[in-house]
C-alpha cells in the first residue's frame, strides 16, 4: 500500500542540523472537512480525499475520515459530517492527531453560516480576533471555509445557503493546557492559522500569541502591563506585595518584539519582572534572550562589576562562571558595597537599552531577581510604574 501524499513532502524547515517537517493548521483541517462535507451533501456520494489550496499557496491533499451521511427525503442527504486529522508536522503541537469535524447542512437563507460545536472555544472578552460570543474560529479559517464551500455550491449549481459547524472532540480538555483560558476563550480550542501551514518551532506563532494576549488586555482597558519572560518571573511576581497583577502576561524571550507590539497597541508603560539570567542580556542591548541568539551573561556581569569598581581578578573569575547564580555567589564573597553597585550598574544599563529600543514611546522599567537571592535591584522608574499599574485596577474589565 502506497503512503498517502499530502503535498507537504518537500516542505520543511532547518533548525540547527535538523530537518523539521511542516504540517497543516486546524484552520486547514476545518476548511477541508467543510469542503468535503459540502461536496457529499450536494452530490450525495462519499468523498475519500479532498484538495485544499492554503493561503500560503501550497495545495494539500487530505484524507477524509469519520463520514456520516444522514439520509434525507430525496436522493441527497439531509446533512453530512466528516473529519480531517490534524498533522502538526514536527511542531510540538497540542492538537496534533486530533480529528477536526465539519457538519454541513442546507439552509434557506443564502450565504455560509459558520459556528463552533463541541471542543471549539467561545470568545468571552473583547480584543480578540472574533467578537465576544462568537466561536473561536479565526478570520483566516473562516474565510477559507467560506471560500471552499461557496466554490462547491457554484460547481454543483446550488443557490441556497449552507450551515457549517466545526467541532473538535476532546478540545475542551486540551484547551486547558493552552493560552485560551488566559485569553478569555472558554470551553475549547481555537481554530487557527494565517497561512494554513504549520511551520515547526515557529517564532512567529509565539509572537502572535503574545500579541493576542496583549490585545485582550488593552481592549479590557489596560494601559500599563506587568510582563515576565516565563514561569520563574510569574512566580516571583506573585510573591511581591504592592503590585497589582491583573494585567500580567508573559513575553518568553521576545523582549524587543513585545516592546514593539506594546507601542503599536498604544500601551503606555511596561514593568518587566525578570530573572537576572534573562535580563542581564538586556543590559547589553540583547532584545531576544534565547541562548541560540546570544549569551554573553558572564561577560556582561564582569563588565558591570568592573564599572562598579571590581578588580581584574574578580572580573576574570566571573568570566569563568557557568551561570549568573555562580557569578552572583562570587560577587557576594567580596565587598558588599561592590555587589550592590554592580546590580545598580546592570539596572542602569537595562533601562538604557529599554529606552533606546522604545525611543521614549512608552514608559519602561524592570525588577531583577535571582532564584536564590530574591530581589537584586530595580530601575529608577519602577516606583512610578507600580503606582500607575495599581491605579488602573478599577478601570480594567476582564
TrEMBL record:
It catalyses: Co-precorrin-5B + S-adenosyl-L-methionine = Co-precorrin-6A + S-adenosyl-L-homocysteine. Signal peptide: none annotated. It comes from the Bacteria. Keywords: Cobalamin biosynthesis, Methyltransferase, S-adenosyl-L-methionine, Transferase. The keyword Amino-acid biosynthesis does not apply. Belongs to the CbiD family. This is Cobalt-precorrin-5B C(1)-methyltransferase. It comes from Candidatus Scatomonas pullistercoris. The lineage of its organism: Bacteria, Bacillati, Bacillota, Clostridia, Lachnospirales.
